[in-house]
């Protein structure tokens, strides 16, 4: 009998599903890419239906469902209640905090009951959240043995963990060190993101980009007070960052922080220098803490290889700083380091516990979702749109980009995670500086200080970027070379770095062909590569979503599975 294990991130933000059949990964999909709701928090019904259809299976064939939270572990927060009651800075929130963790534990139990109703023939197995993160980070790396560092806002009660991995060991994934809430780097970054006028859990990358324009010295002392170093790594000062209560009714930033920094900024208010300076101080403190945590992982595990996971791992500037620190020979961040990716890790954990074997089909993969190759379009797919098939689409696309067109690309299997990896992308010419202004103003509708990431042929990357390792998942911000700053300033951020994607023909043959053709035309194997969406909407996972993006934005054209679509 086949073992069919469904891994789920469901009922919370970033709903997703992964499927293992006899230990091999069939696929992975984030629900927002199909239902059009950014950070979708529903049960990932469309993703599950697609996965089972890919495997030729029905819901009754699922033998196990692995869920990415364990309800009982939330109750561990209650043990901190006496200490919080005795501390004047936390006493007011101590009881609401304890109650909120009990509420979430009950809610998670209810979710498991819902899964039992949906899959009555399957075992329902909750998996520790950080363990699911760690499995995903490690198995996607291809490393036989490594250290793993997970840092996020909250997983049950854990916020930061270090793991030892060894494919040959009796226990291949072992916890080595952990830090619990309320000490949470992800919580702090999200709180200040919201204070600065952006959505926490969504727009932390905007704050990271803004930081490059700020002076961290202005609020350096404040950040040291808010996130002080400790023997255990770091802590949060509850006088400046309120004790977490799992409810939106309890704000994270107290009046004392407002007085020491600045009043909260409304989203419709202008961004001023004081906001950039606060962002810079937050980013610098985050980088310092992440470097210290990476050093701890190196000492604790002893490996020269590191895998990173959790929401904080999406802070590509911090990852770049860890690379520069030289503790490790190579650092790996999976394509989906956030909560959605735990669907893969939860299923992997379930498979290992059931068989004692490691799953397969996870290493190095990012194109794991629905594929619409063979799509046929009418000549007028929407009012005002015209579509026609083209021969040699890579060369045709390169010529259009060289001429200054901004083009959406929809091809092949949907990529995992938040980065545009060349299957659901907007591509543009970095040689023409005015392209960036057009991208921000008429296509992405986002802040002008945010940089655009470059995609570059892997074998030419060293000409443009100081990069000591591959970066296929656009996970590392690295310094640009003098050549790149001089010739392609559009892809270099204010701080002299770029979040680069290295592209090889083996990983993405079509994008590699486009880059090669673009180099023939312009002399540069580099393109601006940003996600195929507009602000506030998820990456386009379906052809209809891609056509919506074309009609609702300033895109010049859309290359949709070999069809050239224009307005």
Describe the structure concisely.
By secondary structure, the protein is of the alpha/beta class. The protein contains 17 helices and 24 strands.
Q: How is the topology of this model organized?
A:
Elements: E1 4-9, E2 16-21, E3 24-30, H1 32-35, H2 45-55, E4 64-67, H3 81-86, H4 91-118, E5 123-126, H5 129-139, E6 145-155, E7 158-166, E8 173-180, H6 185-195, H7 204-211, H8 220-226, E9 229-230, E10 233-234, H9 255-260, H10 273-301, E11 305-309, H11 316-325, E12 330-332, H12 342-355, E13 367-371, E14 386-389, H13 393-402, E15 407-410, E16 413-415, E17 424-428, H14 434-444, E18 454-457, E19 477-479, H15 482-487, E20 497-499, E21 501-503, H16 509-522, E22 526-531, H17 543-552, E23 557-560, E24 563-566
Parallel strand pairs: 1-4, 4-5, 6-11, 11-12, 15-23, 18-21
Antiparallel strand pairs: 1-2, 2-3, 6-7, 7-8, 9-10, 13-16, 14-24, 15-17, 17-22, 18-22, 19-20, 23-24
Helix pairs in contact: 5-12, 6-10, 7-10, 8-10, 10-11, 13-16
Quick tags:
single chain; 567 residues; alpha/beta; Nucleotidyltransferase, domain 5; DHBP synthase; 3 domains; eight-stranded mixed beta sheet; five-stranded mixed beta sheet; 35% helix
């Amino acid at each position: 009998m086949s073992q069919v294990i469904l891994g789920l991130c469901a009922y919370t933000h970033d709903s997703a599903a992964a499927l293992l059949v006899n230990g091999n990964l069939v696929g992975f999909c984030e629900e927002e890419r199909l239902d059009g709701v950014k950070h979708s928090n529903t049960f990932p019904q469309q993703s599950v239906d697609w996965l089972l259809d890919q495997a030729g299976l029905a819901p009754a064939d699922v033998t196990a469902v692995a869920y990415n939270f364990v309800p009982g572990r939330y109750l561990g927060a209650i043990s901190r209640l006496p200490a919080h009651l005795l501390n004047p800075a936390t006493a007011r929130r101590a009881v609401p905090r304890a109650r909120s963790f009990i509420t979430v534990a009950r809610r998670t139990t209810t979710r498991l009951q819902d899964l039992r109703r949906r899959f009555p023939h399957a075992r329902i197995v909750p998996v520790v959240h950080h363990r699911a993160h760690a499995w995903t980070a490690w198995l996607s790396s291809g490393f036989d043995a490594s250290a793993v560092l997970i840092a996020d806002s909250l997983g049950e009660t854990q916020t930061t963990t270090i793991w030892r991995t060894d494919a040959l060991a009796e226990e291949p994934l072992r916890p080595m060190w952990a830090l619990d809430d309320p000490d949470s780097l992800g919580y702090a970054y999200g709180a200040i993101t919201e204070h600065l006028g952006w959505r926490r859990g969504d727009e932390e990358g905007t704050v990271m980009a803004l930081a490059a324009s700020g002076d961290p010295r202005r609020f350096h002392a404040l950040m040291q007070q808010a996130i002080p170093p400790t023997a255990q790594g770091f802590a949060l000062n509850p006088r400046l960052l309120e004790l977490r209560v799992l409810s939106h009714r309890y704000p994270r930033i107290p009046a004392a922080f407002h007085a020491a920094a600045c009043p909260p900024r409304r989203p419709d208010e202008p961004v001023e220098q004081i906001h950039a300076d606060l962002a810079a101080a937050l980013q610098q403190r985050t980088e310092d803490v992440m470097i210290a945590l990476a050093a701890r992982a190196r000492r604790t595990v002893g490996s020269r290889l590191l895998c990173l996971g959790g929401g904080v791992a999406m802070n590509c500037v911090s990852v770049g700083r860890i690379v520069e620190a030289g503790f490790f020979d190579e650092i790996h961040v999976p394509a989906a380091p956030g909560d959605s990716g735990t669907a893969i890790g939860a299923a992997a954990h379930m498979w290992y516990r059931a068989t004692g074997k490691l799953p397969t089909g996870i290493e190095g993969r990012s194109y794991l979702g629905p594929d619409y190759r063979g799509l046929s379009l009418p000549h007028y797919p929407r009012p005002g749109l015209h579509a026609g098939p083209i021969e040699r689409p890579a060369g045709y696309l390169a010529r259009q980009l060289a001429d200054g067109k901004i083009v959406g690309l929809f091809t092949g299997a949907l990529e995992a995670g938040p980065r545009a990896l060349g299957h659901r992308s907007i591509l543009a010419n970095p040689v023409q500086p005015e392209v960036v202004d057009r991208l921000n103003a008429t296509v992405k509708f986002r802040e002008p200080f945010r940089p655009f990431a470059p995609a570059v042929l892997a074998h030419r990357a060293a000409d443009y970027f100081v990069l000591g390792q591959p970066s296929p998942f656009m996970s590392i911000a690295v310094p640009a070379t003098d050549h790149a700053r001089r010739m392609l300033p559009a892809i270099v951020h204010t701080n002299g770095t770029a979040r680069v994607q290295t592209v090889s023909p083996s990983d993405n043959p079509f994008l590699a062909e486009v880059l090669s053709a673009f180099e023939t035309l312009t002399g540069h194997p580099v393109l601006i590569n940003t996600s195929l969406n507009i602000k506030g909407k998820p990456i386009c996972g379906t052809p209809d979503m891609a056509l919506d993006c074309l009609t609702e934005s300033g895109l010049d054209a859309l290359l949709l599975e070999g069809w050239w679509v224009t307005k």
